[in-house]
Amino acid sequence: QVQLVESGGGSVQAGGSLTLSCVVSGVTYSRYCIGWSRQAPGTEREGVAVLDSDGLTSYASSVEGRFTISKDNVKNTVTLQMNNLKPEDTAMYYCAADKCPSHWVGYVVGFAYRGQGTQVTVS
Questions:
Q1: What is the chain's mean pLDDT, rounded?
Q2: What is the spatial distance between Cα 35 and Cα 12, in angstroms, rounded to a whole number?
Q3: 74 CB contacts (<8 Å, ≥6 apart)?
Q4: I need a surface site. Which of 39, 46, 58, 123 has the fewest CB within 10 A?
Q5: DSSP per position, 42-89
């Protein structure tokens, strides 16, 4: 059974940084993607960043250059480093995983497996 457990959310002032972590277990696909999506109140969930089995990444244009997704294969952890945060980054952030045909960030919102979410608030 696939399990994704996020941590690292919190409150920060604009311009600050936060690091989100996701411990991944139970994924048996040889090729899959892991990514992050977010959802603010009253808005649709959007893909933020994704990383595939080859290490290829893609990002939403709104976070390109500020967010970085990476994976530690030893710790089975995926990290989202978020720098220069803006108030519009405020949302619940979800780690997600699934098989994927490519590393297009838009696929993340449809991934079959998703964690419980962690709140990020930027003021």
A1: 94
A2: 22
A3: none
A4: 123
A5: TS--EEEEEE-TTS-EEE-TTTTTTEEEEEETTTTEEEEEE-S--GGG
